[in-house]
Design goal:
Length: 212
């Protein structure tokens, strides 16, 4: 009987040690499991692009002059320029320039050209200077602007109001002056957007900026 009692005592102690060991191992895991990791906010992604001219002619590949391409991310800056540029039988200009730059919290893009002369479906369009700019900033939205100097259609002056999305009708299509449209986290601005149905789509001075 003494031996049996001793075995029971030893068994009880062993069980107690096992219970304590199991609790000791589980306690840190329980404590870790109760800790909620801090929430992390993804860094904003800047996107931007600018081009002096973008043209789509029905039946032909799209063409661009002085196009920066798309920003690779924060810290990237792209610019391109040319003293002259042309698309045969359609458009010519001088001092073409485009630039876009992105930071962690802001994007700025701008495109311009001088001495614009183009003919779309027999309609002559000219301007001394064309420029578009776009800015997007984290937490404060986006804004854009255009400048079009001495715009004329078939030699007749066109009054530019400066308001966004001013429309001027032309045979078979339209010219949108200071075209502005919202994009996810930003804005797209086209200083001049000429469309003639079934013929061509021409943008002069294009700038986009966004922070997402």
């Amino acid at each position: 009987m003494d031996r049996i009692k001793a075995i029971w005592k030893l068994g009880g102690k062993a069980c107690a040690v096992l219970v304590l060991s199991a609790w000791s191992a589980a306690a840190p895991a329980q404590l870790l499991g109760s800790i909620t990791p801090p929430l992390t906010t993804p860094a904003p992604t800047p996107t931007g692009q600018a081009a002096a001219v973008r043209v789509t002619v029905i039946g032909a590949f799209p063409t661009a002059l002085a196009d920066t391409g798309t920003l690779a991310g924060a810290g990237d800056a792209r610019n391109t320029s040319s003293l002259t540029g042309s698309i045969p039988s359609l458009l010519a200009g001088e001092v073409l320039q485009a630039a876009t730059i992105g930071w962690d919290d802001q994007v700025d893009s701008e495109a311009s050209l001088a001495s614009l002369g183009m003919t779309v479906a027999g309609i002559g369009i000219s301007a001394d200077f064309v420029m578009a700019s776009a800015t997007a900033a984290a937490g404060s939205g986006a804004s854009g602007a255009s400048l079009v100097g001495n715009l004329a259609v078939n030699g007749a002056p066109v009054s530019v109001s400066g308001d966004p999305n001013q429309v001027f009708s032309i045979p078979g299509g339209q010219i949108v002056i200071n075209e502005q449209s919202a994009t996810p986290g930003g804005i797209a601005v086209n200083a001049l957007h000429v469309t003639v149905d079934g013929v061509a789509d021409v943008v002069v001075g294009s700038a986009t900026a966004a922070i997402q």
